[in-house]
Amino acid sequence: MDQPTLRTRRLTLVPLADEHLELEVELDSDPEVMRYLIGRAAARAEVERAHHRRLAAAHEAPGLGFWAGFAANGFVGWWILQPPHGPDQVKTPGEADLGYRLLRSRWRQGYATEGARELLRYAFEDVGLDRVFAQTMAVNTASRATMSAAGLAFARAFTSAADDEPIPGAEQGEVEYELTRDAWLAQRGPMD
């Protein structure tokens, strides 16, 4: 199964491609966007390496990967649905990690939630996953609110096993939110 183009009321999510590199550079060069990820703006070389990793993620599991999101007036950010891959993620068949990163000018407009909900629908309806989770720093209240608004529920708090240089707020730990297929079906209610 190839990664399809996905659509919501306001977004078109297209599989990430080389043509999106400059958009990723713009996104990751904003220190506020990267605040809870690396604590600073990413250098172009870092973004280029990340771009190649993101493209490779589309080959890890059928139908999963990164999507670049566009609204009627241009680039919004990217969304991800990929197999567990981090130091705090157990590789479990039927599970995927959900993520998103948006231009600061697109924050607080509902785009992150809208794209996340579409990826959750896709994960459970089309890919047939059993569980989707998302992780962030405990202090990242905006991302946590997006996870909740998309339908994920708090699952656990933990201290990251990553060897990265700590960034402000890391001392408060990380959190994981989740949504299972059964909970997603229950949220949707009876189908006609």
Describe the structure.
30% of the residues lie in helices and 26% in strands. By secondary structure, the chain is an alpha+beta fold. An eight-stranded mixed β-sheet has the order 1-2-3-4-5-6-8-7, sandwiched between helices. Strand 5, helix 3 and strand 6 form a beta-alpha-beta unit. Helix 3 crosses helix 4 (141-150). The two termini are 27 Å apart.
Give me the oligomer status: single chain
Task: State the helical fraction.
Answer: 25-40%
The SS-based structural class is alpha+beta
Shape: globular
Briefly say what this structure is.
The protein has 192 residues and is of the alpha+beta class. Helix content is 30%, strand content 26%.
Provide key terms for this protein.
26% strand; alpha+beta; 8-stranded mixed beta sheet; 192 residues; single chain
SSE map:
Blueprint: E1 6-7, E2 12-15, H1 21-28, H2 44-57, E3 65-71, E4 74-82, E5 95-102, H3 111-127, E6 131-137, H4 141-150, E7 153-158, E8 174-180, H5 181-188
Parallel strand pairs: 5-6
Antiparallel strand pairs: 1-2, 2-3, 3-4, 4-5, 6-8, 7-8
Helix pairs in contact: 1-2, 3-4
